[in-house]
Amino acid sequence: MTDTTTATVDNAPAPGTPLLQASNVVMRFGGLTAVNDVSLTVNTGEIIGLIGPNGAGKTTFFNCLTGLYVPTEGTVTYKGATLPPKPHKVTQAGMARTFQNIRLFHNMTVLENVLVGRHTRTKEGLISAILRGPGYRREEADSRAKAMEYLDFVGLANKAGTLARNLPYGEQRKLEVARALASEPGLLLLDEPTAGMNPQETRATEELVFAVRDRGIAVLVIEHDMRFIFNLCDRVAVLVQGQKLVEGDAATVQGDERVVAAYLGTPYEGNADSTTPEENQ
Amino acid sequence: MTDTLQIRPEAAAAPKPAIPLPTAAARAVTAAGAVLTAASAFLSWTYSSQFPGDLTLSGYPGGLQWITFTGGLLTLVYLLVGYGTPGLRGLAPGGAEGTTVILAVGAAASTWFTLIAISVELGGLANLTTGGWVAGIASLLAVVGALGLPRDGQHPQGHRLGALLYPGKRPELAPAKRLAPAFEVGIVLLTLAAALGVFAYGVDTSYAELFAGFLILAGFAAWALNRSGDFARLGEIMQRHRVLATVGAFVAAGLFPFTQTSSNAEANANLGVSILIFAATALGLNIVVGLAGLLDLGYVAFLGVGAYTAALVSGAAGTAFNVQFPFWAAALLGAVVSGIFGVLLGAPTLRVRGDYLAIVTLGFGEIFRIVVQNLDGTSGPNVTNGAIGISNVPDLNIFGFDFGSAHSFGPFDIGRFANYFELMLIFTAIIVLVFARSANSRIGRAWVAIREDETAATAMGINGFRFKLLAFALGATLAGLAGTVFVHVNYSIVPDTFQFAGPTPPNSAFLLAAVVIGGMGTVSGPLVGASLFFLLQAKLSFLHDYQLLLFGITLILFMRFRPEGIIPNRRRQLEFHESQTEDGQEGPTPELRTAEA
């Protein structure tokens, strides 16, 4: 399965300096430990996959990275600086995300959605919006040009005036990517970008992610589609019951019997209680 | 006939008319009915001149007869459009037959309203003369004829009686041809003139019966023009000549006091300026509710803050500070203080979302009123003179122009309220400018994004709290600005004006209703909604307590049949009538595409 894209992976820019470093992240909700002591590093130019069974804590971990949750313990740094625990500041810092269940601004047009993505890279405030000076006009025109460029990049330029809600499912996913790219991130976090897609659409998403990486943007992607993830990623981390089970390239992860156990169950009946698979070994 | 209704839409290419008549006969009956209806306005309808408007004269229509006359004439015009009269064909791109039905029903409704009003007020049908009966029967004849015309709309299945009388939904409009620019400019100017005329007539209606008759016909005519597609076409033309339309609308509004020459010109100008204040405040609320999606139930408090601030520095006798600021300073101060209050109220309250925010703002609105009531010298320091309020607020004097006295401009006498009307019009223009420009900018997009999905908006780098606070503060500032004029127009100010709900505007419930019914997120929506509500309230005061009942019924009917408001935001229109586009074609309507470009 991996053979199809090894060539593409080889073409990727060599992994550079660490971009995002999550160390020993713990997230507890009351008595429930959703993420337990997970560390992960994303380097520049890398595509990293995050997989795991349902309820493994992938999205929770994602939310810890993007400031939606404040980790109970552990630190997250981006380009060496600790990330502020506010989603808008995380985006400002250079990390943009998409959502597992598409969260577009449904009653705005496609172009407006991307323009909202430009928010952190534009500065004009209320007063200049009301006065409409030359600076404002220039920035607005510049924003629109950039937004169209991102729409062109994902192939939605001809739908700029459409309401986001009227886009077909696959294109809504693309628009989410364009909107995230508009904030000019150094790292793009994709939460299940191919959920509900047919094989052709999944393939197109794959191409899109490679194209994003080729623009010099690192990508961290959560996915259930194994074929997609192993085609795409330089490294894959497996999260099971809130803990990182294994991390490595596609072959390492696929060959790890603990991963197989986590997905398919253990071949012998040990203890039936909810201890982690690691302890079962 | 019931068979027709059960036919699938594709089979019912040409649905049978509600009343089976040969088309030629139907046209003839409608034409005869419409002409007779219009002509009957020239007859005497009653024996006694006790009914207001004096309908006893033959040869000249009076009062409500003008309404019937207009109704008959409009029916006739659209009948001729449907007949293919050269020169009129472009008038009904969405189908003339359905339009004719609505207009005929409107003419009949307003005529029968008059006849019933005469009978009730004068005590019995015996008070109607032959002319009255002619009008009644002719208007019904036009309805019968119109229902026999071939149907041209999209008709729903089922609901037998309703489907029979329903004039059909407007079919999709074909893209319009552009007219010659000069012609389009002419249409824009003509529309503005007509709007001014209708508005001035509505305000000038000197007795409740006339206003009710006017409202009935105006309501049906608006429905008819929407059904005919004329409003859609006009909207496109206005969009192309946006600057002209906007400037022209303000010029037309500025001409309003000059149209009022009757003895109640001052009362009408007072109504006009009150409408403007109410509308401008509603537009401020529209930023908070329509754009940022924050339900604010205590908004009228900000109008109060601006009004009290202006009153306190107006030099009125008995105020705590014995100072008199020039008006520009008072207006600025009122706006700024109100904005500060917006921030003070917003900072703690905006941390809660949705329903909770509504309740918290409701509480703050009441707190404002009660605090002001208690700053009377006994319960607290004497700042606002308590429940008695601040009276004798002096009239404005800007550059030697005394707003308190009448001035003549050529043949026109412009009185006190008309002076304030023109002043408030300038303020309204400023508020419209601020609203329109902030809505269509990075800031406005952030507000709409927060309204649509706050989590996604923050993930896009928008500081949700900060932008909600900005919307709150800007809305408050605009309301405060309106409040500074409000206090001078009304001479005095008392805390009880600023309630959550009450029979008279301004109160928070009325403001919110004006925004929602008018059209959230649009500029003209709240202006139209506010005018409508204020006029209803001012003109139908004879209903007393039933007014609130009427108000409630209006709200329910609107939310059921037109949830997007009178002037829908292009986004919301699609949101509420999604099914139309879904079973039609995918993607947006042509209007939307052009609007975005």
Describe it for me?
The complex is a heterodimer of chains A (about 280) and B (about 600). By secondary structure, chain A is α/β, with parallel strands linked by helices. In chain A, about 40% of the residues lie in helices and about 20% in strands. Chain A contains twelve helices and ten strands. In chain A, the strands form two sheets. In chain A, strands 6-7-8-3-9-10 form a six-stranded mixed sheet, sandwiched between helices. Chain A has a four-stranded antiparallel sheet with strand order 2-1-4-5, covered by helices on one side. In chain A, strand 9 and strand 10 form a beta hairpin. In chain A, helix 4 runs parallel beside helix 7. Chain A is globular, with a radius of gyration of 20 Å. Chain B has two domains: about 210 residues, no CATH class; about 250 residues, ABC transporter involved in vitamin B12 uptake, BtuC, CATH 1.10.3470. Chain B has about 600 residues and is mostly helical. In chain B, helix 3 runs parallel beside helix 5, helix 10 packs antiparallel against helix 15 and helix 12 crosses helix 18. Helices cover about 65% and strands about 0% of the residues of chain B. Chain B contains 24 helices and four strands. Chain B has a two-stranded antiparallel ribbon with strand order 1-2. In chain B, strands 3-4 form a two-stranded antiparallel sheet. The N terminus and C terminus of chain B are likely disordered. At the A-B interface, helix 3, helix 4, helix 5 and helix 6 of A face helix 15, helix 16, helix 17, helix 18 and helix 22 of B.
**Biggest protein-protein interface?**
A-B, 45 and 38 residues
Radius of gyration of chain B: 26 Å
Taken in chain order, the helices and strands of chain B follow as: HHHHHHHHHHHHHHEEEEHHHHHHHHHH
Q: Helical content of chain A, roughly?
A: 25-40%
Main sheet: strand order of chain A: 6-7-8-3-9-10
Indicate the CATH architecture of the largest domain in chain B. Answer: Orthogonal Bundle
User: Taking Cα atoms only, what radius of gyration of chain A do you get, to the nearest Å?
Assistant: 20 Å
Q: Please identify the top-level CATH class of the largest domain in chain B.
A: Mainly Alpha
Beta content of chain A comes to 15-25%
Portion in strands of chain B: under 5%
Total number of domains of chain B: 2
Q: How many DSSP helices of chain A?
A: 12
* Largest sheet properties of chain B: 2 strands, antiparallel
Task: State the end-to-end distance of chain A.
Answer: 27 Å
Distance between the termini of chain B: 46 Å
Q: How would you classify the helix and strand content of chain A by structural class?
A: alpha/beta
At the third CATH level, what is the topology name of the largest domain in chain B? ABC transporter involved in vitamin B12 uptake, BtuC
State mean pLDDT of chain A (0 to 100 scale): 85
The overall strand count of chain B is: 4
Q: What global shape of chain B is seen?
A: globular
